[in-house]
Amino acid sequence: xxxxxxxxxxxxxALLLSCATTGPGGKKSVILISDSQEIGLGQExxxxxxxxxxxxxxxxxxxxxxxxxxxIVAVSDRPNIEYHFTVIESDDINAFATPGGYVYIYTGLxxxxxxxxxxxxxxxxxxxxxxxxxxxxxxxxAMGIDILYQIVVGESDTKTLQTAIGLGLTVALSGYSxxxxxxxxxxxxxxxxxxxxxxxxxxNMFERLASVSEGQRNFFENMFATHxxxxxxxxxxxxEIAQFPADVKTRDLGKGRYDLMKGRLx
Length: 266
Known about the structure:
three-stranded mixed sheet, 5 strands, mainly alpha, 8% strand, disordered N terminus
């Protein structure tokens, strides 16, 4: 029995070691889905999102969002995959990321913002989820090693793929664990600072969300039930930013440029 157990365990250990990946801050984690497979899932997620959403027709806004996003990607811990940034026309106050490098933001949230730094803060947060592969890890937990092994070796069927798509979108829209959200906040602030932006935009964004009217706040809390409390996020952001040089906190927040873009939103 021990001999047969060894025959089974050794290939699994080899697979796990070969699938070790580096996330934010150089943290190691075991991911059974390769980059190329994750990108394939992301493409399927994107098809689903586009079939169910109204994509903002303003190409200048799409280009602007992409420009901001790519600046963050360039200083992230995972710049080796292609990222896609899409604005969805909806009054919902939301933004989310899916595995494979896809980030989406709703015009309802864009209208709530007042500076480019606030847009950058949200974008960097979502990119951090992709860098840390939070969505992929949730898929591993939800689907189990057997099904994921089928995906790894290319033996999954259409039903399995559709299950993965459904789970992936559910995770993206319903939120990650509080620990995942804290990590995304932390590295989002670091990335936006390293990209040359004023990190106080993150604090301003959290404070803006805290001041949303009661009706909108109820909706927001439902969408982000797993996020840490807003005051906790503000306190954590202040602690992170306090470690940066003073001149970082006096950088331009980009209000003038954002006002011009915000004026284009209906």
